[in-house]
C-alpha cells in the first residue's frame, strides 16, 4: 500500500483523481499514517424508495418540549 502524504496530495490532486478514475485506490496519509482513501464514485444501482422507514420510527409526543432547566436557560417557559 502506497501512502501519498497530504501535502503532496494537495499539490497533485488532479493527478490523483485521474488515477482514481482509472480504477486505482489512493491512500492519503499524515505523518506516514493512512487517514483517508480516495476511491471512484459509483452511483447507487437501486433507486431510493420513499417511505422505506414508514412506521419504523416513532417520535415521542413530548419531543418538542424542552426540559425545565434548558427552557429556563433559553428564557422560555414550558407549556
TrEMBL record:
Pfam families: PhdYeFM_antitox
Family annotation (InterPro entries): Antitoxin_Phd/YefM, YefM-like_sf
Role: Antitoxin component of a type II toxin-antitoxin (TA) system.
Protein name: Antitoxin
Organism encoding this protein: Desulfacinum hydrothermale DSM 13146
Family: Belongs to the phD/YefM antitoxin family.
Entry superkingdom: Bacteria
Amino acid at each position: 500500500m502506497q501512502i501519498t502524504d497530504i501535502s503532496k496530495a494537495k499539490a497533485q490532486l488532479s493527478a490523483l483523481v485521474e488515477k482514481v478514475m482509472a480504477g486505482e485506490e489512493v491512500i492519503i496519509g499524515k505523518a506516514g499514517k493512512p487517514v483517508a482513501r480516495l476511491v471512484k464514485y459509483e452511483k447507487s444501482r437501486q433507486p431510493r424508495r420513499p417511505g422505506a422507514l414508514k412506521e419504523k420510527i416513532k417520535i415521542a409526543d413530548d419531543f418538542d418540549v424542552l426540559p425545565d432547566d434548558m427552557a429556563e436557560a433559553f428564557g422560555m417557559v414550558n407549556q
